[in-house]
TrEMBL record:
Annotated protein name in UniProt: Peptide ABC transporter permease
Membership in a protein family: Belongs to the binding-protein-dependent transport system permease family.
Protein's organism: Microlunatus endophyticus
CDD domains, per the entry: TM_PBP2
Signal sequence coordinates: none
Keyword Transmembrane: yes
Subcellular location: Cell membrane; Membrane
GO BP terms: transmembrane transport
Family matches, as PANTHER family: OLIGOPEPTIDE ABC TRANSPORTER, PERMEASE PROTEIN, OPPC IN A BINDING PROTEIN-DEPENDENT TRANSPORT SYSTEM
Listed GO CC annotations: plasma membrane
Keywords assigned by UniProt, alphabetized: Membrane, Transmembrane, Transmembrane helix, Transport
PROSITE patterns: ABC_TM1
A family per Pfam: BPD_transp_1
Bilayer topology annotation: Multi-pass membrane protein
Length: 377
């Protein structure tokens, strides 16, 4: 009854008062597409948790020197394949002392742990010098020890700290995929939009080029690239070259998907209205077609990042991607390529856990974004 009375009261109101009330009533029940996308994304708990984990991992990459207890490039034969440090709470948080013993018969080394005289952990202690953000010189680290080495995940074949190298390796492995996908997204979006909108001979030529690129086996392509690279090429140069090659071989799939989206939009009423109003082709593409396909582009790009990370890791593991002295997760896993080493020192496989965690989080986040960008489904 109250709703009926309210409606009758509104009908009896003067036109000016009714017009003043109309905007307020018209906003009831209206929700923007952006808010719908955010609401739907929040409903995916796995996607939200994955996003938080990825933010933490990228922050770890930014503060890698501060989080690393040891210099990742420091070679120490006294800790060759040293097992992970044994943590103890005897007399406060600390690690057990480790002593290297050489077997006189097999000439192999093994390590003896002594927890009676534990080495205390120093939080925000001093260690190797570095420049925070590349600008501020400091030698403070999150956790250090006064003597010996804090090896949370053990050491590799040259006695280098695997934990510190994992944190530093995230800088390469987690950014090379993102940069490669960004370049591939730009190429795929522009070329796919042009192909779907212009059509005709231009579309035919673009599609034939895409088919040629997609038919090239990627592994022989990387092997050829590794063969033609100069052996003294800098780490930075190899990093950017790998990024460019990754983007050049991954944009084709997105271009074809964007082409299909644009072709479905090309005959829409708003596009025909823009043509009738005298809008140029570039304006129609940039103002109407690309924004309407943006949600699909974002979802596809997000799911392409883990593929790029796996590609870099696999190629570096095979020795045709990033090479030592560069630090990446694929380079760290090269020690795990030998079965005898893996059987005796299984901790060299720990960097694979970082790859699995990062790729899984990106896939779950991509699934959440893909569902969120279509809130009306």
């Amino acid at each position: 009854m109250s709703q009926l009375a309210e409606l009758e009261t509104t009908d009896l109101m003067p036109d000016d008062d009714r017009a003043a009330l109309a905007p307020e009533q018209s906003g009831i029940g209206e929700v923007s597409q952006t808010r719908l996308m955010i609401r739907r994304f929040r409903k995916s708990k796995l996607a939200v948790i994955s996003g938080i984990i990825l933010i933490i991992m990228y922050l770890g990459a930014v503060f890698a020197p501060f989080l690393s207890p040891n210099d990742p490039a420091q070679v120490d034969a006294n800790y060759k394949f040293s097992k992970p440090s044994h943590l103890t709470l005897n007399g406060g948080p600390g690690i057990c002392q480790v002593k290297q013993v050489i077997d006189p018969v097999t000439i192999s080394s093994h390590y003896v742990t002594d927890c009676n005289n534990a080495i205390p952990l120093r939080f925000f202690g001093r260690g190797f010098e570095y420049k925070l953000f590349g600008l501020i010189p400091t030698d403070r680290h999150l956790v250090t020890v006064d003597k010996g080495k804090l090896l949370l995940f053990g050491a590799d074949s040259q006695g280098r700290d695997i934990a510190s190298r994992m944190v530093y390796g995230s800088r390469v492995s987690m950014t090379i995929g993102v940069l490669g996908v960004i370049i591939a997204t730009i190429l795929g979006s522009v070329i796919g939009t042009v192909s779907g909108y212009v059509r005709g001979p231009t579309d035919t030529v673009i599609q034939r080029v895409i088919e040629i690129i997609m038919s090239i086996p990627q592994l022989p392509l990387w092997a050829t690239m590794a063969a033609v690279m100069p052996p003294n090429m800098s780490v930075t140069g190899r990093y950017f070259l790998m990024t460019i090659i990754l983007s050049l071989v991954t944009w084709t799939g997105l271009a074809r998907q964007v082409r299909g989206k644009v072709m479905s939009y090309a005959n829409a009423d708003y596009v025909n209205a823009a043509k009738s109003a005298g809008s140029s082709g570039s304006r129609i593409v940039l103002t109407h077609l690309v924004p309407n396909a943006a949600s699909h582009i974002v979802a596809v790009s997000m799911l392409a990042v883990p593929t790029a990370i796996l590609a870099e890791t696999a190629l570096s593991f095979l020795g045709i991607g990033m090479l030592d002295p560069a630090i990446s997760w694929g380079v760290l896993l090269q020690d795990a390529s030998k079965i005898d080493v893996l059987q005796q020192y299984p901790w060299v496989l720990i960097p694979a856990l970082a790859v699995i965690l990062c790729v899984t989080c990106f896939q779950l986040l991509g699934d959440g974004v893909r569902d969120a960008v279509d809130p009306y489904s």
